[in-house]
Amino acid sequence: MIRNPWTPMLLGLAVEVIAFVTLLFLPETLPGGYTNASILPTPSTSGSSQAITSTSAAIPSGHHSPSPAQRSLEFLGRAHSSLAFLVSDSCILLIVSAFIVHMLFLNRNVMLQYISTQYAVSIAQATVLISIRSGLVFLLCIIILPVISLSVRGRLGAKRADLVLSQVSAALLALGFLGVGLAPNLPVLVTGLLTNALGWGLFPFLRSLSTGLVEPHHVARLNSCIGVFDTAGLMVGSPLLAALFTKGIEVGGVWFGLPFLVCAAVVTVLGLILARVRV
């Protein structure tokens, strides 16, 4: 980046292309025995029942289309039926609602500006520091977390293990954000970044925990709800962090790292909520 800003951008684009090509080699995950024939009428259906079905399916003469109010009520009824599983268990609702703060922690732009401004380093040098955290997160996801998860699951069971690992991850994430927000120099900042990276398994563990708490036919709806909360968090989180960064610069002093102090407080509250979850 110091020599030529186009080099990292083109390298990043090449890595993205490799990722998309990899998708072509993913195997099909639908059950092999599934066919459209499974929804056809069975041969044992009697003629009388077929006649009844045909009659019931016919649209009666003089039939009127539903009014807008009726369509609205019908839509609300379907929405309530689809989301009933979400509000039926307070644990599921608490876990899913936690994803609204997920995107709050993925904004690298504020982190780059904070490091560059606070410690008087270039954007290129700040990028290197953040890349150290990214490298640890990479190792965490492909090696460390799977090994720890398998070990803890063998002792506590799947749901209990996901809950405990979520609580530990929340504590590390909050401690890391606190260290980043209060770091007086670069060595302490790097320590905070590394501690923060160790907690990045929080949301994968929460997703796994919530999936284990719902019935299999609700998993798709659950992930759709998580996606909605993620998107809402992104819409709110990005401008919020930018505003906090601006306010931190105006106030100065210990409040210079205000965005990360707020993130630490948010994760602390999330950890306290997880402490009340029972599986």
UniProtKB/TrEMBL annotation:
InterPro entries: MFS_trans_sf
Keywords from the named record: Membrane, Transmembrane, Transmembrane helix
Topology term for the membrane: Multi-pass membrane protein
GO MF terms held by the record: transmembrane transporter activity
Any single Gene Ontology cellular-component annotation: membrane
Highest taxon of source: Eukaryota
Places the protein is found: Membrane
Record-annotated membrane-spanning stretches: 6-26, 83-106, 126-151, 163-182, 188-206, 227-246, 252-275
PANTHER family noted in UniProt: FI18259P1-RELATED (PTHR23507:SF1), ZGC:174356 (PTHR23507)
Name of the protein in its database record: Major facilitator superfamily (MFS) profile domain-containing protein
